[in-house]
Design a protein that fits this description.
Blueprint (H helix, E strand, L loop, with lengths): L1 H26 L7 H21 L6 H32 L5 H6 L13 H4 L25 H6 L12 H26 L2 E2 L1 H6 L13 H29 L7 H14 L5 E2 L3 H20 L1 H22 L3
Antiparallel strand pairs: 1-2
């Protein structure tokens, strides 16, 4: 069953990668203004990879080093593309994408340059109430679109909207802290162990199943939070909502689908196998709605908080 889920997950991610590549090529002119955000995310990923690489010395063969560099380059390019397109989808849906970063690095007020194609100008998939004070932020104006699309977008951009930090932190800590508390209760009841696959990956096959709170592990946990939230919540969730017309009250469908896909990518990490999906599927739902309300930065911080705290608690939650 685990192998089947892994196969389905890999197939879905490959199809989505091709879809994103095609969409990026078609929209490359209109999304170019988002390139700096994508490049910043990609560079942050490479810096974290470099920190882990330097702090964990290991014998490298020339083939292994070339493979590692090639994999990092592909990860960099994927994160750049997903971030650029994710911001484009969020704007079309009238949702925030990276409002904190955009506020600190405001772009030209004219928007993205070329207007939308016919299918974008008539897209009805706008979030109900997007850009209202209750949403926390205003969405970027990615298109100069008339009619329903324009009415769904705000007259201000993410870069000019005031941020209610008290509300922002309250929701971030609620999602991250709630995920930690739920995981602690679940693990206390199920008493899971690391799977053999993860033991082999961490080179723990002949050792007690302890995950130490080390600098490389800390950086890796933050790296996972950054990459997964930009790829899944900003990119894939936005892609599904945009092209399946899941704006407004139907946005929850995109949240559930994205969470299910994200959960499938974590199957096989713990034994019993059902524990990991039961742990992170609800977290994925909460992160999805956090994305809708506050943008991807809130998801990155909440996810990072969740990862780091559980890393520290792992010797007690996963006793071996």
């Amino acid at each position: 069953m685990t192998q089947f889920v892994a196969l389905v997950y890999g197939l879905c991610m490959f199809v989505l990668l091709i879809a994103f590549l095609v969409d990026w090529i078609q929209r490359r002119r209109s999304i170019w203004e988002y390139a700096r955000y994508g490049l910043a995310a990609g560079c942050a990923l490479l810096l974290m990879e470099a920190a882990v690489f330097i702090s964990v010395p290991r014998p490298w063969t020339p083939e292994g080093l070339i493979t590692a560099v090639f994999a990092d380059v592909l990860s960099f390019l994927r994160l750049v593309g997903y971030t650029m397109l994710g911001m484009c989808y969020a704007a079309a849906l009238g949702l925030p994408s990276l409002p904190i970063v955009a506020r600190r690095t405001p772009g030209p007020s004219s928007g993205l340059g070329p207007g939308p194609g016919p299918e974008e100008a008539s897209a009805p998939g706008m979030a109900d109430g997007a850009g209202t004070p209750g949403s926390g932020f205003e969405a970027e104006r990615a298109f100069r679109a008339p009619g329903d699309l324009r009415r769904g977008l705000s007259s201000a951009s993410d870069s000019t909207r005031a941020i209610c930090w008290a509300r922002w932190w309250a929701f971030v800590l609620l999602v991250g802290g709630g995920g930690v508390a739920y995981s602690a209760v679940l693990f206390a009841a199920a008493k899971p162990n690391l799977s053999d696959v993860l033991r082999d990956f961490l080179r723990l096959r002949d050792e007690p199943a302890k995950i130490a709170f080390t600098f490389p592990a800390l950086v890796a946990m933050l790296e996972f939070a950054l990459a997964e939230e930009l790829i899944f919540r900003l990119g894939i969730q936005g892609f599904l909502a945009h092209y399946l017309k899941l704006g407004g009250r139907r946005y929850w469908i995109a949240v559930v689908l994205t969470s299910a896909l994200w959960t499938a990518g974590h199957v096989g990490v713990l034994e019993p196998a059902w524990v990991k999906p039961a742990q992170i599927f609800p977290l994925g739902i909460a992160l999805g709605f956090l994305m809708q309300r506050f943008g991807a930065e809130s998801c990155i911080v909440a996810h990072g908080f969740f990862n780091v705290v559980l890393l520290g608690l792992s010797p007690y939650l996963l006793p071996g």
